[in-house]
Design goal:
Layout: H1 3-17, H2 24-27, H3 31-47, H4 51-65, E1 68-69, E2 74-75, E3 80-81, E4 88-89, E5 94-95, E6 100-101, E7 106-108, E8 120-121, E9 126-127, E10 132-134, E11 138-139, E12 144-145, E13 150-151, E14 159-162, E15 167-171, H5 177-180, H6 189-230
Parallel strand pairs: 1-4, 2-5, 3-6, 4-7, 5-8, 6-9, 7-10, 8-11, 9-12, 10-13, 12-14
Antiparallel strand pairs: 14-15
Helix pairs in contact: 1-3, 3-4
């Protein structure tokens, strides 16, 4: 695909997924637009083994946009980075088609691996603001990573992950994440655990009160029997 085709594609993607953009001209001011177009150029240089030039282009993009995409990363069509400040995509990361990333997302390594060090995101994955995906594993297609989550192991397709460390809290997502761009309506396992603990506490309190009533009743009955015997 030529650079003109990339530009047309990115304009279409941004207009579809960001309601704040009112015209095609505004897209040219969008940080992620600049970062992705410069990544495409840097990646071509990287594939031709012009590593210094590739890094030079990518570092210029990082300084201008706050989005750091290593030129060695493999990225499919339709990538959308909303806002984008603080986004980092590592050298061996692989992104499928129509992936969505929000600000502060890191697709990084753990520092202990060799070779393939960064995650693979399949088609239609959405990674919400501030989430970190660290390691050489796969996030299955149509999966959604909740804001602020830290994902350290593989996620099956069509799942929702939240928490630190990330846990699968929903399976069988019906909607493709990019169709609603919803970062808010996610299950909260910690809140659920707290509610269950509160319910257990109420049940335990009631049982203790019931046992205390029975003990008082038994003590009063025993006292009455002794009083009757003494008469």
């Amino acid at each position: 695909m030529g650079m003109i085709s990339y530009i047309k594609e990115e304009i279409k993607v941004i207009r579809e997924r960001d309601p704040a953009i009112k015209s095609n001209m505004e897209v040219f001011l969008y940080p992620s637009f600049k970062a992705i177009i410069m990544y495409r150029a840097a990646h071509k240089l990287y594939r031709k083994k012009h590593y210094f030039l590739a890094r030079w282009v990518s570092q210029r993009a990082a300084r201008k946009t706050g989005i750091e995409i290593h030129p060695g990363a493999k990225i499919g069509k339709g990538l959308f980075i909303d806002h984008g400040s603080g986004v980092i995509i590592g050298e061996t990361a692989e992104l499928g088609d129509n992936v969505t990333l929000y600000q502060g997302v890191t697709l990084g390594g753990t520092g202990k691996e060799q070779g393939k060090r960064h995650p693979t995101l399949k088609d239609n994955v959405m990674v919400s603001a501030g989430a970190k995906v660290l390691g050489s594993f796969t996030i299955g297609e149509n999966s959604k990573i909740g804001a602020g989550s830290v994902v350290l192991k593989e996620v099956p397709p069509n799942c929702t992950v939240v928490g630190v460390p990330g846990r699968v809290v929903r399976m069988g997502n019906i909607k493709i994440p990019r169709s609603d761009m919803d970062q808010i309506d996610l299950p909260d396992p910690i809140s659920n655990d707290i509610r269950e603990l509160q319910a257990d506490n109420i049940r335990m309190h009631r049982r203790i009160m019931d046992m205390e009533r029975k003990l008082r009743s038994a003590a009063e009955t025993k006292k009455e029997i002794k009083e009757d015997e003494s008469i």
